[in-house]
Amino acid sequence: MIARVTIFHVKPEKVEEAIKLYETSVIPDAKKQNGFAGGYLLTDRASGRGMSLTFWQTQEDVTASEENLHYQQQLLKFLEMFASPPIKEQYAISLEF
């Protein structure tokens, strides 16, 4: 399993709006992607910093979600809310407990 981590910083006054958008748009769209296995949205409401963790069955599933522009389309939804560009990282899940 693969975890894609997107580290972000949204404008503090936009945090609640960003959370709602993630809930009502990003999550339903992610569930339509092949190999999507779940995720978490972590936020510090005071600073606007946070991270999105999404879990994928295989590396091919992660790659497909980027090649079909799904990932990029999700980021565009937050463009006016970002205080700085997001950072994308990927990790193999080595242990689950």
UniProtKB/TrEMBL annotation:
<dbReference type="InterPro" id="IPR011008">
    <property type="entry name" value="Dimeric_a/b-barrel"/>
</dbReference>
<dbReference type="GO" id="GO:0004497">
    <property type="term" value="F:monooxygenase activity"/>
</dbReference>
<protein>
    <submittedName>
        <fullName>Antibiotic biosynthesis monooxygenase</fullName>
    </submittedName>
</protein>
<dbReference type="InterPro" id="IPR007138">
    <property type="entry name" value="ABM_dom"/>
</dbReference>
<keyword id="KW-0560">Oxidoreductase</keyword>
<keyword id="KW-0503">Monooxygenase</keyword>
<dbReference type="Pfam" id="PF03992">
    <property type="entry name" value="ABM"/>
</dbReference>
<feature type="domain" description="ABM">
    <location>
        <begin position="1"/>
        <end position="73"/>
    </location>
</feature>
